[in-house]
Amino acid sequence: MDKPLILVVEDDKAVKNLITTTLDIEGYRYHTASRGQEALVEAVSQTPDLMLLDLGLPDMDGMEIIRKVRSWSKMPIIVVSARSDDGDKIDALNAGADDYLTKPFNVEELLARLRVSLRRMKDFTENSQEEAVFLNGGLVIDYSSGCVSLDGNELHLTPIEYKLLCLLARNVGKVLTHNYILNHVWKSALDSDVTSLRVYMANLRKKIEADTSHPKYIQTHVGIGYRMLKIG
């Protein structure tokens, strides 16, 4: 079986060479792009399995690329950027990125995050093939199609949002700790990942709760984790 195809979007030649050399050594296939428009063309024409994305491109901000790709693809996107502020990371995750790695980076960490994102996508695909439907009030999860609807309206979720929702649904009524969720969705339980979990949970709530200050479906247990409430 062919190794996954990685799209490397990076305009710094030295960084691009480091990443592609690393991918070569590990046996991954890859395409490269140095500009935003080129990256979008490659994403459409080559249908890569994952994108490694620099935010500071000469013709387009990487945030715009994330939003455009997310409008039609669930492909994992790992941001590799020199922007180190927490606000930049949160903005990228809100836009639909799956992970965020700050330059300069360790190539072993890059490979580890790449493997986790690809495994996460594989799990998402396999979960989407299950023949079952989850019903809870007006919330419907069709595992066979990977579709979610609320009160008859289809919801557009990112792969991580979908995986979070499915994990809560399969454990409806149970309080899931931060570590439990991180181990099942992020395949790790690093303290730094709790921030990502909170961002994704906040985004998920915005999509399924009529009033996020008085949640109907997902309850927060402060300092512990989250629980999906059984409706009816």
UniProtKB/TrEMBL annotation:
GO cellular component, one term: cytosol
GO molecular function: cis-regulatory region sequence-specific DNA binding; identical protein binding; kinase activity; phosphorelay response regulator activity
DNA-binding region of this protein: 131-230
Organism name: Anaerostipes rhamnosivorans
Superkingdom as given in the UniProt entry: Bacteria
Keyword Translocase in annotation: no
Protein name according to UniProt: Stage 0 sporulation protein A homolog
Transmembrane portions of the chain: none
Localization, UniProt: Cytoplasm
Domain OmpR/PhoB-type: 131-230
The Response regulatory domain, residue ranges: 5-118
CDD domains: REC_OmpR_KdpE-like, trans_reg_C
PROSITE patterns: OMPR_PHOB (PS51755), RESPONSE_REGULATORY (PS50110)
Residues with the 4-aspartylphosphate modification: D54
Function, in words: May play the central regulatory role in sporulation. It may be an element of the effector pathway responsible for the activation of sporulation genes in response to nutritional stress. Spo0A may act in concert with spo0H (a sigma factor) to control the expression of some genes that are critical to the sporulation process.
Entry keyword set: Cytoplasm, DNA-binding, Kinase, Phosphoprotein, Transcription, Transcription regulation, Transferase, Two-component regulatory system
Gene Ontology biological-process entries: positive regulation of DNA-templated transcription
